[in-house]
Fold this sequence. Notes:
Chain A is of the alpha/beta class. Chain A has seven helices and 14 strands. Chain A is globular and about 50 Å long. Chains A and B meet through α4, α5 and α6 of A and α2 and α3 of B.
Amino acid sequence: xxxxxxxxxxxxxxxxxxxxxxxxxxxxGAGMPAELIEALIKQGAGDLTIVSNNAGNGxxxxxxxxxxxxxxxxxxxxxxxxxxxxFDALYRSGKIELELVPQGNLAERIRAAGAxxxxxxxxxxxxxxxAEGKETREINGRGHVLEFPIHADFALIKxxxxxxxxxxxxxxxARNFGPIMAMAASTTLASVYEVVELGSLDPECIVTPGIFxxxxxxxxxxxxxxxxTSVP
Amino acid sequence: MNSELQCWTRLxxxxxxxxxxxxxxxxxxxxxxxxQVASQIGSQREIILHSENGMLGMGPPAAEGEEDFxxxxxxxxAVTLKPGGCFFHHADSFAMMRGGHxxxxxxxxxxxxxxxxxxxxxxxxxxxxxxxxxxMDLAIGARKIFVxxxxxxxxxxxxxxxxxxxxxxAQACVDRIYTDLAVLxxxxxxxxxLERVDGLSHADLQxxxxxxxxxx
Lengths: 232, 216
């Protein structure tokens, strides 16, 4: 019998090794798997490369992982926010490497990794600082930049509901990076607030098919506080 | 120049942008000044708002006490969803932006050049922590790019420039500019003035602009 449900978040992150590349879903606090990151902090892996849209907000989730000194490099599109003080301090003291990526390139590079694409050309960033040193090509009279996929060893994502095969759906805009990160990582751990019987998720409405999910962890009640973020 | 000159307020600028958006359009409003355009779109008009984090049919901000932080806009503020609205993941959302599916995108700017180059993500290269978000994707991908910005920066320098001194967001992408003094179109011949604030002559406007302006 296939059963991807693990007993707790700690068991789900067991396989994360030092030096791993870890994707973390979320757009600010929406979709940020705070409980899984908490488990990763306790697990102890360090020297991590984190792929996430932001670089942590406030004190919980990704911000706590950064504050714990576990991250060597972050690949993201929008690190600087009103409450990104942990990242800001690390960056200013040269203790973290930043790869700044236009948000659409971040999403597409993650998707490309999951879809087996070798690289792709895009007009985004052409002629800007963020394309410096990259291969370019004119396609249909327009400048394009060559971008490579971003693979990860692990993805920590936050979903809403799942079944033992790992089929998932999400809640509102908390979906954001979850489905594509699940595709791009060798091992994906998804948190859900509800595990349902196999067959009870509407097959027309499964957003992430279980093939992209290796482990599933059931969380207790929603921690409203952890999901809140302040203004950008 | 008339010392009684009343610049357009942010709300008046937003109203002008809202009036220029045709019914039925799919529109993305950038963070900051452009966000105010939403409140100027009459409730009887049907315009679909796209939010980069994965939503079409975005509604007004959530009422106090009814915020759901799984339902946020690009500025991470709690919003609502209109009937017919939907959610999707980030690659789909940016495919809408990059693939030419968004009719109009309204962005803020630090500078716009004569040729429609846009600088709106960073004012200097050293000292600040850079952040770009979806600006570059919107700038290259939306069918039309409207910019909303003050005509001059805080030190009185023209934000319309021959060539951007700040880092570029994208080349030759801007179609129309709404400042607090004028509305201008970026054309192959140069910047054409469509409208000026009351009491401001073309010569006055030209005096406040670092690039040659074409009269309408």
